[in-house]
Each structure stands twice: as structure tokens, then as C-alpha cells.
Design a protein that fits this description.
Length: about 140
């Protein structure tokens, strides 16, 4: 799926930075999710796409990087929502869950959907505040 999407993205005029893997051998997806997330967080790229078996673990790993808002998307609605409502800057996809055709449709929808701002901005700011508090060690206890 990764190769298919990279080909289609280049064909559509997008620059693709491929951080691997370059084989079909099993790998530790957190390493690749982090590599993509680091590029996004540093501003080296404006958005990232990570493909693993289910897409879940890569989203979890990428979201550990400050400034990254990774979203697992599995249809056009979640792709739109992740960008418009949540200002997602990393898309994760599960190659074992969806096919190449749907993955490409999701990528196109995700890239074409603008950040909605408005009422959603307040919510994204709250997500960022949680991230910043934890990064600064200002954990809030419950109970």
C-alpha cells in the first residue's frame, strides 16, 4: 500500500519523503511512525502519512510527539473529520484493513479537506494545552 500511495501522490504532483521501510520484512512500526511524526513536528514536511497493519499503533506512537495530531482514518468521513475538526497533520492507515483503492480515496479526501477553525479551534487548543501540561510535567491528579 505504501508504494501504491507514494506513486499516486507523486503522480498528483506531491513531494514524497519516504522514511522506509524498504522491504516486506516485519518491522517495528513505532520507529517509522516516529520518523514521520518528527518530520511533521519539525516543520520539515507539512503533513505525514503512515501505513502499518491496522493503523492504530502508528497513530498512538505518532501522537506521542509534541505538535503531532495523528488520526487513523478508515473511510472518507473520518478523513474529512480528522482534518476539518481536529486539524490532523498525520494520517495513519491500516493496510490489513482497507485496500489500495479506498486508501487512495482517503488520502485524497484528507489532503483536500481544509482545517475548519471556528468552534473547532477551541477544542484543538485544549488538546494542545493537555499536551503542553504533560510535557512540562504539570500533571493533574484525579480523585
Amino acid at each position: 500500500m505504501k508504494e501504491h500511495l507514494a506513486f499516486r501522490l507523486r503522480e498528483a504532483g506531491h513531494e514524497v519523503v519516504d522514511v522506509g521501510t524498504d522491504s516486506n520484512d516485519a518491522v517495528d512500526y513505532p520507529d517509522f511512525a516516529r520518523a514521520v511524526a518528527d518530520l511533521v513536528a519539525a516543520g520539515t514536511v507539512t503533513a505525514g502519512i503512515v501505513v502499518d497493519g491496522a493503523g492504530i499503533g502508528s497513530a498512538m506512537a505518532a501522537n506521542k510527539v509534541p505538535g503531532v495530531r495523528a488520526a487513523l482514518c478508515y473511510d472518507l468521513s473520518t478523513a474529512r473529520n480528522s482534518r476539518e475538526h481536529n486539524h490532523a497533520n498525520v494520517l495513519t492507515l491500516g493496510a490489513g484493513m482497507i485496500g489500495n483503492a479506498l486508501a487512495w480515496q482517503i488520502v485524497q479526501e484528507w489532503l483536500a479537506t481544509p482545517w475548519g477553525e471556528g468552534r473547532h479551534a477551541r477544542r484543538v487548543e485544549k488538546i494542545t494545552a493537555i499536551e503542553n501540561a504533560h510535557t512540562a510535567g504539570q500533571l493533574r491528579t484525579v480523585g
